[in-house]
Amino acid sequence: MAAHALLKAFRANKPAFGAWLTLPGVFFASQVAQASPHLSWILVDCEHGLVPLVPGAAESISSIQNTKNKPSCLVRIPSTGVSGSTSWQIKYALDAGAHGVLVPMVSTAEKAAEIVADSRLPPVGRRGFGSPFSANEQILVMIQIETKEAVENLDSIAKVDGLDVLFIGPYDLSISLGYPPPSPDPHPDVEEIIQRILRVSHEQNKKCAMYCINGEQAARRAAQGFDMINVATDVAAMAESIARNLNTAVGGNQK
């Protein structure tokens, strides 16, 4: 399996910064992967993004892993924790060469344990062997904590063996708890819960990840002790860069 920058950061106990890939296409994935040497990971979003799991995830993974920077490549599958379709989607993502999978809206320890089993080869799991990209110690199993039920079951979820990362989805989490989505930061009551998720994750020797929308937010979360932090999405970064440069150009030509 290709170099695994995210796993190296975890083992060194250093914060790992990454980006969200929502647009399809091998050339686009390659450009995002080469954007910065500080990019430890890229998540290919097949849930809310426009990248299809089949065959788009495999194409994006190959493109990302063939760049000089070689950030770790992760896949968020379309199926959520309330679905019965997670098993085959995990298998496809990992067989395609992903360094890890992220399953959204996981709310129980039982579902988290099922996801771990589907992601690991025997004897620790039940994933079938059929890919050259198959090494238990290289695969990161991640679930999203973003529902009220997940918060209620947090302690039992965090104790699941083989689970590597609890990834906080602050938008769905806020809505599920009856609060507005972050704008740009979460409501103080939601922030208290976010800090509890971080604390419980670390108590159970799990890594805790946070979705942020810019570098300033990401820097604050890293200082708080989060292990894995999203810094930007491809679409937002592209739009922001175009708007900033146009504003500079227009401002410089106004009389």
Summarize the structure.
With 255 residues, the chain is an alpha/beta fold. 44% of the residues lie in helices and 16% in strands.
What's the mean pLDDT score?
Answer: 94
Output the number of helix runs.
Answer: 11
Based on secondary structure, the structural category is: alpha/beta
Question: Order of strands across the biggest sheet?
Answer: 1-2-3-4-5-6-7-8
Measured as a percent range, the helix fraction is: 40-55%
Radius of gyration: 18 Å
Strand fraction equals 15-25%
Instruction: Give the strand tally.
Output: 8
Report the sheet with the most strands, covering strand number, pairing sense and barrel closure.
Answer: 8 strands, parallel, barrel
Instruction: Provide the low-confidence segments as ranges.
Output: none
Which of globular, elongated, flat, extended, rod-shaped describes the shape? globular
Order of helices and strands: HEHEHEHEHEHHEHHEHEH
End-to-end span in angstroms? 57 Å
SSE layout:
Blueprint: H1 5-11, E1 16-21, H2 26-33, E2 41-45, H3 53-65, E3 72-76, H4 86-95, E4 100-103, H5 109-119, E5 140-145, H6 148-152, H7 154-158, E6 165-168, H8 170-176, H9 188-203, E7 207-211, H10 215-224, E8 228-233, H11 234-253
Parallel strand pairs: 1-2, 1-8, 2-3, 3-4, 4-5, 5-6, 6-7, 7-8
Helix pairs in contact: 2-3, 4-5
